[in-house]
Design a protein that fits this description.
2 domains, mainly alpha, about 0% strand, about 290 residues, about 75% helix
Length: about 290
């Protein structure tokens, strides 16, 4: 329903569908982790329902936008919503980086007796060395080696920085209504995202097979795979979003003065780039 000042959405089924999907996904995953046989099926059903919701809901939004039902006030609300979404993602990664910093700056030195006057490690693990990365008893976590920062991680850093440039070029092409260049730069950005994911997968295989670095490699392995893995998930989601936007560009969607769908994905992709730079510095380099 459209009014003179605002667009009021029609009655939609997608919020309840999404709620059901998220409930099944989270409950199924929790049951899966606790050994329930129904857990994996619940998680799969929940993931499929969430994907259905996303495709259906965004399809409705795209149709409404292309029909000219949205005005400047709706555009402003979309922008506010995307800002808050990215802020929630900042807090998400902030919690994980907080866990890394706490373990590295406080927990490890404390166990080694630094600043406490008590050699805690003499009671827990006499051979413990208060150094980062921690390498606990070989019988528990196993000996492991770390991944050099200036190998594949540096290549992936350059790839993501390049993808930030290509999507910026795509934005400029859109503003100038250079449709062919726009599509080309968008596809280049998608390709760079896929290459990043391929190299990260190769890095994981190398870590598990050759370096002994796994999720069970103490606090270092846990924080390493937690941070890089969730970032990889965000790159996967961002690449899918970029591909959808590229298809929309091929269909002639977006105008120089009306393209927030494009801008929202660009914001998200730049956020992913910035997170990787912080991750590269504190996980691989320092």
């Amino acid at each position: 329903m459209a009014s003179a000042n605002y667009y009021v959405p029609h009655t939609a089924k997608w919020p309840i569908v999404g709620s059901i999907g998220l409930f099944l996904l989270v409950s199924g995953f929790a049951n899966w982790m606790n050994g329930s046989t129904i857990g994996p099926w619940m998680a799969i059903a929940g993931a499929a329902t969430v994907i259905l919701m996303m495709f259906g809901w965004f399809a409705d939004v795209i149709r409404e936008s292309e029909a000219g039902l949205y005005n400047d006030k709706v555009d402003a609300s979309f922008r506010q919503g995307m800002i808050w979404f990215i802020f929630s993602e900042v807090m998400f990664f902030g919690a994980f980086f907080g866990a890394l910093f706490y373990a590295r700056i406080f927990a490890v030195p404390w166990i080694g007796g630094e600043g406490t006057g008590v050699m805690t490690n003499s009671l827990l693990y006499p051979e413990f060395q208060a150094a980062w990365p921690t390498n606990g008893p070989a019988g528990l976590g196993g000996d492991f080696k770390t991944i050099g920062a200036f190998e594949l991680p540096l290549i992936n850093t350059l790839i993501l920085l390049t993808s930030g440039w290509t999507i910026t070029m795509a934005h400029w092409a859109l503003k100038k209504m250079q449709r062919k260049a726009l599509v080309g730069w968008m596809l280049a950005t998608v390709a760079l995202g896929v290459i990043f994911l391929f190299l990260q997968s190769y890095e994981y295989v190398h870590a598990y097979r050759d370096l002994g670095l796994t999720l069970g490699s103490g606090i270092y392995g846990s924080t390493f795979f937690m941070l890089t893995g969730f970032h990889g998930l965000h790159v996967t989601v961002g690449s899918i979003m970029l591909l959808v936007i590229a298809f929309r560009c091929m269909k002639g969607h977006f105008k120089p003065d009306h393209h927030f769908g494009f801008e929202a994905v660009a914001w998200y992709w730049h956020f992913v780039d910035v997170v990787w730079l912080v991750l590269f510095l504190f996980v691989y380099v320092v």
